[in-house]
Amino acid sequence: MPSRIDGDYLRSNHIESSIARAFMQGAGFSEKDLKERPVVGIFNSWSEMNPCNLNLDQIAKSVREGIMEAGGLPVEIPTISIHEQINYPSSLLLRNLMAMDVEEMIKRSPVDGVVLLNGCDKTVPAQIMGAISAGKPAISLSAGPRALSIYKGEEMTIHSLWGKKEERQKGEINDKGWEEYLSKLIPGPGTCNVMGTASTMSALMEALGLALPGTSFFPSQSKERELAAKKTGRMAVEMIKEKRTPDQIVTLESLENAFRTVCALGGSTNAVIHLEAIAGRAGLRIGIDRFRLWSETTPHLVAVSPSGPYSLHDFSQAGGVPALFKRLATLLHLESRVVTGETWSKIIGRTESTDSPVLRTLDNPINPDGGLAILKGSLAPGGAVFKRSAVPKEFWTHRGPATVFEGIEDMEKRINDPNLPVGPESVIILRGMGPKGGPGMPESAKVPIPKKLWESGVRNMVRISDGRMSGTADGAVVLHVTPESAEGGPLALVQDGDIIELDAIKGRLELLVDAKELDKRRKNLQKAKSPSRGYDWLYHQHVTQADTGVDFDFLIDPAVRSR
Ligand code: FES
Ligand code: MG
């Protein structure tokens, strides 16, 4: 039987000497195990209200076996679970609440280290943010992508939903067809089966070093994922013994590796927000200039939907994140260490190079410019994001007059109005969707094409918002405009007909209106009202803007706050 290590280090030691042990014995744990084994908390975001995380109960069983095999004592602890489409008005509103739950329960429970089980988009950063702040050894494992759905004999991914929704809104699919389509859309547990936010975040965890290399894209219900779960459990015990804490893994270098990975994947725009929030918990700040530099110098290499024709399975078969690291080697910090204690240099040394159209090389990229463009300019002094990889090149530069909507209700009321002042060259603005205005930056920034333009064949146009877009969607949409309109950012000043210029090659977003005129408009602005109580109040008082990760100011590490 392994002996307990290093007395004081183990918070679970207090179980031995206190009445807590009596209660744990009451829960079925043996005195001997409680005294001798390191306690590993399995922080599980399984929930029946979260279909994407529904297989985590099975995965937890395998994690448990791995922990036992390595001499640890597994204790499963439920966490808050957030679903992207089910929780409203937006999942990001609840990410910080979940991060607080995870942080406090890691800190205040007698566990020596944790396995974090996550899946649906925000559950990944929420758990990691909490675990970094808590400071105990932590390893992440996601639910894995769900199977592809079959509709009318064809395999389809969640990406198809957005096109179908648009057709439905335009009356091209009737009630029966829509119901039938929806009934087939989600064939079982697991995360969205394209390079959406959940997949991007899972790959980001691997690249950052907080998950076992090569494990992100094993299907949700597969032998490989079960084995990965066992290994993750075993590794958690090793990490406790080695005192391998998140601060040794999350560094500016590993954050750069993670972001370059997202760019090469053509991954979700949401990653920009979450990565800055993760950095803030580790006492680090990335900042828009670093994001710009990294994105401009990282080519897009992975052709997975929605930024290419291939599936996650194809990418996994081609070697997944370690194979991508091998391709990107000259751009990455290979001395960064991961949960196993190994450097990336060692990991890619044993990774085979595969030849596959889903994973291109540096000298034959899908696009030499990164999948994500970080924009700045008079309309977005604090930055904005544009997913170039999912937008045809003709939309990367554009100049046109604004058509402005004040939030979702206004947009839904007027978007199909035949008298809407809009043409194919127009730039649609949807504001009031930011961290405070949304609240929580709802993923509704992809405004549908106005009906009168749709009927004349228009299928894409430039749209700009302070909100977010689903990582599974495509389209010429500028997102996360900072500062948001509810905080009086320039986006709040735009009027119908103002000329807006987008240049996603040079990274610019400009509002071409005279400064004096803007000053005049600014005088009449009103900021968003604060809710009067509860979590909504806490959120409104303390949430930061997109350029600082939409975290609460008091949760960001003091080292960053004091800068
Ligand atoms: Fe949960 Fe996509 S909605 S992962
Ligand atoms: Mg999503």
Descriptive terms for the model:
Glucose Oxidase, domain 1; binds FE2/S2 (inorganic) cluster; globular; Dihydroxy-acid dehydratase; 563 residues; 8-stranded mixed β-sheet; metal ion binding; Rossmann fold; alpha/beta; binds magnesium ion; disordered N terminus
Through-space gap between termini: 48 Å
The helix content is 25-40%
Profile the largest sheet: 8 strands, mixed
Strand order of the largest sheet: 7-8-12-11-10-9-13-14
Count of helix runs: 22
Keywords: 2Fe-2S, Amino-acid biosynthesis, Branched-chain amino acid biosynthesis, Iron, Iron-sulfur, Lyase, Metal-binding
GO molecular function: 2 iron, 2 sulfur cluster binding; hydro-lyase activity; metal ion binding
Domain Dihydroxy-acid/6-phosphogluconate dehydratase N-terminal: 37-345
Pfam families: ILV_EDD_C (PF24877), ILVD_EDD_N (PF00920)
Mind explaining what this structure looks like?
The protein is of the alpha/beta class. The chain contains 22 helices and 14 strands. It has helices spanning 14-17, 20-26, 31-36, 56-69, 92-107, 123-134, 160-169, 175-185, 197-208, 223-242, 246-249, 252-265, 270-281, 288-296, 312-317, 320-328, 344-349, 407-414, 451-455, 515-522, 534-542, 558-561; strands at 39-44, 73-78, 113-118, 138-142, 149-151, 154-156, 373-377, 380-386, 397-406, 427-431, 463-465, 477-482, 499-503, 508-511. Strands 7-8-12-11-10-9-13-14 form an eight-stranded mixed β-sheet. Strands 2-1-3-4 form a four-stranded parallel β-sheet, with helices on both faces. Helix 6 (123-134) packs parallel to helix 13. It starts with 13 loop residues before the first helix and ends with a helix. The model is unreliable at 1-9 (pLDDT under 50). It binds FE2/S2 (inorganic) cluster and magnesium ion.
